[in-house]
Amino acid sequence: MSDATTTTEPAAPPGKHPVDEIPRLARLFPLGLQHVLAMYAGAVAVPLIVGGALGYSAEDLAFLISADLFVAGIASIIQSVGFWRFGVRLPLMQGVTFAAVGPMISIGTTYDITAVFGATIACGLFMILVAPFFSALLRFFPPLVTGTVILIIGVSLMDVAAGWITNQNESAAPSDLGLAAGTLLFIVLIERFAPAAIARVSVLIGLVLGTLAALPMGKVDWSGVGEAGWFAVVTPLHFGVPTFPPAAVLSILVVGLVIMVETTGDMIAVGEIVDKKVTKKRLADGLRADGLSTVLGGFFNTFPYTAFAQNVGLVSLTGVASRFVATMAGLILIVLGLVPKVSAVVEGVPSAVLGGAGIALFGMVAASGIRSLTRVRFNNKNILVVAVSLGVAMLPTVTPEIYAEFPTWFQLIFDSGISAGAITAILLNLLLNGDQLTEQDTQEMAPHDAVRGVQPAVLGHVSPPDPAPAEPDGEPETAGETSERP
């Protein structure tokens, strides 16, 4: 796509920041579509993982995918356009977070999916309430903690990729293993030889090529595509009224903190790229939007939302700062969510092909955690934080029944390696490095795969920036802003 290359936008009118410029439609649509393609594989993976683990039918899986795309579109529009105190008003795309996969499967297995949606709604409300104060909590999430948690997320999800390849059996059929390996090879070759614009969607192209390779083998089941309609409204509470088991809610609240750390890093990164200061006020507005999108997710039969960092890299690649590119991408996602045939096509992709792509996708998440950890000075204490957290997280992954004799509330939290590892990393860092927390720079946190350049000066810890144009609500921002209006 020609719009994928680095380009120079026409100069913005005096007093108007490039972020607030609206490109002409002939340019806006392909740029928005490019963002959709960059996030699509990751966006549909979570409903496929969770719905598959809970044993849902092909029809229900297609519905979960539609709901996910629909709410992701709304969430992206809220974040990019903004209203009142919701939305960072930067070119950020929203999608379901991988951090919630393990806890949601545990909750859905113990109760049912209505408990997952209830915990998701509670998590969103929690994020909205905590947003004004979260910048003060960032010191509890240094790169040591965030890098460890992100590494755990990626490694824990490898079990899902293996299950896709084996079709939940003890071993994989040679043909399935071949499809997975072929898909993975396609992705690697695209990354190696394709232009940067194509490499950005290597996972998606790998899925397409792997599916095409599976067609003559009879492994692609698109029987549901003909039955699916061309248009359907995503109905809220499709699976029933949400329930709120306390242990389930607590488990997802831990995920909520991880989401807020990830989104903060993404907002900082994209603000640096487009030269727009991310003040405490703007940060809180963006986190509130994450919370609102998560609440909507619970009502519309989907899961917690966060900023997709691969799209942050795409902003850097294209050089287009306009937030309305993300708005256009959100509109495209909404349309895709209202077309059941699209979800039926995705649901028909062979699980072995998904498994091959999953190795790359989840491996990228793990590698991003390692990248964050490269910024840590590894003394014995920090090594112990990573080692113990990773070990605790792996216990339920390698031995799923290890906590079978414990109470239900304990199992809900610790049967998920992601939540168990996150709690362990936070508490161990407090115990072993508590005396250093006041000295840690809160700017050093990073999300799972955002592009990083020069460290951004944000959150009011720097000298005032140059005068900035007024925000959409007419209020000028300053980097020294420390108060938060209700």
Characterise this structure:
This protein is an all-alpha fold and 486 residues long. It is 61% helix and 1% strand. It has helices spanning 25-53, 58-81, 101-110, 113-130, 134-137, 143-156, 158-166, 174-193, 196-199, 202-214, 223-227, 246-274, 280-299, 309-318, 324-337, 340-347, 351-373, 380-398, 408-414, 417-433; strands at 94-96, 305-307. Strands 1-2 form a two-stranded antiparallel ribbon. The longest helix is centred in the first third of the chain and has 29 residues, at 25-53. The radius of gyration is 21 Å and the shape is globular. The protein starts with 24 loop residues before the first helix and ends in a 53-residue tail after the last helix.
TL;DR of this structure?
The chain is mostly helical. It is built from 20 helices and two strands. The termini are far apart.
Biggest sheet overview: 2 strands, antiparallel
The class by helix and strand makeup works out as mainly alpha
* Average pLDDT over all residues: 79
Task: Report the order of strands and helices.
Answer: HHEHHHHHHHHHHHEHHHHHHH
Low-confidence stretches: 1-9, 440-486
What radius of gyration results from the CA coordinates? 21 Å
How many DSSP-defined strands? 2
Gross geometry? globular
Total DSSP helices: 20
What is the end-to-end distance?
Answer: 44 Å
Beta-strand content bin: under 5%
Residues in helix, %: 55-70%
Strand order of the largest sheet: 1-2
